[in-house]
Amino acid sequence: MLEKNIVTLLLFALTATAHAETVFVTLEKDNALAVVDPIAGKLIKTVPVGQRPRGIAISPDNKFLYVAVSDDNTIKIIDVETLKEVGKLPSGEDPETFALNPAGDTLYVSNEDDSLVTVIDIAKRKAIKQIKVGVEPEGITVSPDNRWLISASETTNMLHWIDTKTNAIVENTLVDPRPRAASFTADSQQLWVSSEMAGTLMVFDVKTRQLIKTISFNVTGVTNDKIQPVGVVIDKQRRRAYIALGPANRVAVVNAQTYELENVLLVGSRVWNLAFSPDEKHLYTTNGVSNDLSIVDLESQTVTKSIGVGTYPWGVAVKP
Amino acid sequence: MRPIKLCTQTIIQFFIIVGHLGGVGVVDAKPKQVVAIAYISQEQATPPALSNLDPIVKGKGLLGAELAISDNNTTGQFTGQQFVLKKFNVPPDGSVVDVFNKAIADKFSYLVSLLPAGQMLSIADLPAAQKMILFDAATTDDALRNEQCRANVLHILPSRAMRADALAQYMMKKRWTKWFLVVGRRSEDQLFAEAIKRSAKRFNMSLVAEKVWEHTYDARRTAQSDVAVFSQVDDYDVLVVADERGEFGEYLDYRTWLPRPVIGTQGLIATAWHRTHEQWGAVQIQNRFKEQAGRWMEEQDYAAYLAVRAVGEAAARTQSNELKPIKEYLVSEKLTLQGYKGTPLSFRAWDGQLRQPVLLSAPRSLVAVAPIEGFLHPKTELDTLGYDQPESHCQWRK
To answer: Which of A267, B154, B183, B297 has the greatest count of CB atoms below 10 A from its CB?
Structure first.
């Protein structure tokens, strides 16, 4: 058993060096998926994926991509190797954002127009429940310990704490206007929520569901109304959090222990979503208006490259 | 801002005590706190149809208010608040003052008005209206935001000055610096023209010619014959038209003596809302509105939507249905109203005008959103549009 594990590990290490990681980016206006080799810094290819692709996620086993094709009213399952569609999930209308549970067997979709969250059993490809939430649910995430499903409604300005066992709302928390993204820390102890209109980020203690800190971003040369936080990711050790500031064209680097703003990195126009490289040494950002993907070297905290990917890059997923 | 915790479970009393101490409000799911909003409009005589292309839209405004009520109530189910809209549609020969005194005075704290300037003011000056907030979701008059401003009125739609500045910024960006201004005969056209002239001065543009349209308002005659002759003036970059009712402006494009774009009330227009707008989540509200109303959202619908949403937002944040805290919240810097235009909206403290981006739209495509990039302001670029604080003639704040 141990031997087998070591062999697997070795194999994994070998393949990891042999094949560099791959970055997948949904292109909202091109109806396509961009496939990027971030090590070579090259766009490998672009494949058609359906109408208005936005949210994207990769299965825990890295075999499948899930892509919300909003105007086709479905979430497509794409084989990572062949990039061919292998199935569809009944997402409800106009899917945009969704979240996978840690096991990768359940998918939760925000149905923005209907104020609903749809719970999908991936294996059965069936919607098993619809949960009524606030107006225009957007940000959605599952805690790494699979205890909580969080849905943030943009117009109601609320976080809905949903018990993943019962799929019922346990509590609602008003947050700053137009919450966009919600992310848990790796230990499931904290929830970080960005509020686009207020230009803030709120950090909650999960156990008490109380606010720990509201972070604002003052960036020299950028007026406050341009600071519209969207995507937020926190590294595994909770050293730093990175927040996409939308039309401020910058990514904020926040010390995740002290909540101080440490740095601001200029990326591309209207930076939306973020993803770490598997080793968390790099950060990939989708820049909606400048049509590119920026690569940030996290050690030196510099933007090392920007790669043109296509029109309106939206979501990003990384395969090791 | 601190979040307000909303507990749907027990131990509420404990939370209420804690909430009071800590400034965090907690509410029980029931009984619901009712926030009542009145809506007043008056049937206007339908203007003669100019063309069969566009259906005459009736009841502009109301459907926007209704959508906002349903949005507020979706939120309300979690905050223990219930929003109620009571509508009053005054017949063309009826008196809005009578309806107000009889049915609205002392019964409501919030009133959304779709009335023209004169009637709106006649209500705003009544004694009972001093204990209310009137949301003006219909007028664009600059006078109402300046000399004739009222402390109990908040204006949702962009004023003519804001629209003219939005157009001017775009023309400046395009370097269309020489303008030919064509003005209709109606008093509102004059007001729009005045706003255009103010912007020309503000942005140092030159008005090479100005003419009043006095020809026919019949497309079949006007189109070919009159416009070519009428538009023979000194060379200009762009024709700016002031025809708010749309009586002749549509006939100018493609027919001018020189090949020049048309901008203003026709051609490229400045508006609070347009069906071509789909950025920043706008497509969501366009869809929700269309589903509920069966038609596109008009500017007045958008204004009424925002008015009711503003009350909803303030009520949810203050956990109150009372005038004082809600009004304080509305005119404070805390308000960050989501208006689907990519930036938070708030009210200008000096004149009650909602600060907001202005859409510049062609009939079938959104061309730009003002403030145009590069027009800077020390506080917010939104205040490059319309009367900024030092320019305001509104006295009620001083």
So the answer is: A267
Q: Is A30 on the interface with B (CB under 8 A)?
A: no
**A210: chain B residues, CB-CB within 8 Å:** 5
Check CB contact of A113 with chain B, cutoff 8 Å.
yes
Beta strands in B114-237 (DSSP E): 133-136, 153-155, 178-183, 206-212
The pTM is what? Answer: 0.83
Task: Decide: residue B132, CB within 10 A, 0-12 exposed, 13-18 middle, 19+ buried.
Answer: buried
The verdict on whether omega for the bond into residue B371 sits within 30 degrees of 0, i.e. cis, is: yes
H or E, element range at A319: strand A313-319
Task: Choose the final residue of a domain: B241, B271, B301.
Answer: B271
Task: List chain A residues with CB under 8 Å of B14.
Answer: none
Are residues B142 and B218 both part of a single domain?
no
- For chain B, what is the mean pLDDT? 89
pLDDT: which is higher, A225 or B350: B350
Using left for φ > 0, alpha for ψ between -120 and 50, and beta otherwise, residue A293 falls in beta
* Domain identity same for B101 and B146: yes
Closest CA to B306 of B332, B276, B275, B344: B344
- Strands in B22-102 per DSSP E: 33-42, 81-90
Measured in degrees and rounded to the nearest 5, phi and psi for residue A170 equal -100, -35
Based on the fold, state whether residues B226 and B303 are members of the same structural domain.
Answer: no
Under 8 Å between Cβ of B289 and B300 = no
**Contact status of A228 with chain B (Cβ, < 8 Å):** yes
Q: What is the pLDDT of residues B302-358, one digit of tens each?
A: 999 999 999 999 999 999 999 999 999 999 989 989 999 988 899 999 999 999 999
**Does residue B84 lie in a domain region?**
yes
What is the β-pairing status of strands B358-362 and B268-271?
antiparallel
Alpha-carbon dihedral sign for residues A125, A126, A131, A134: positive
Phi, psi of B117 (to 5 degrees): -50, -50
B331: in domain? yes
Considering the domain architecture, whether residues B121 and B220 belong to the same structural domain is answered as no
Whether B5 sits inside 8 A of A209 (CB atoms) is yes
Contacts of B71 in chain A (CB under 8 A): 135, 155-156
Closest Cα in chain B, distance from residue A318 (Å): 26
* CATH number of the domain residue B70 falls in: 3.40.50.2300
**B106 in a structural domain:** yes
Closest C-alpha among B131, B140, B136, B101 to residue B121: B136
Q: How many domains does chain B have?
A: 2
Shortest Cα–Cα distance, B284 to chain A (Å): 6
User: Which residues form the domain of B71?
Assistant: 31-158+274-356
Mark B2-23 as b/e (b = at least 16 C-beta within 10 Å).
ebbbbbeeeeeeebeeebeeee
- Reported as a pLDDT band with limits 50, 70 and 90, residue A224 is confident
Q: Report the gap between the CA of B106 and the closest CA in chain A (Å).
A: 29
* C-alpha–C-alpha distance, residues B313 and B332, integer Å: 13
Substitution target from A159, A197, A207, A311 for chain B, most B beta carbons within 10 A:
A197
Residue type, A67: V
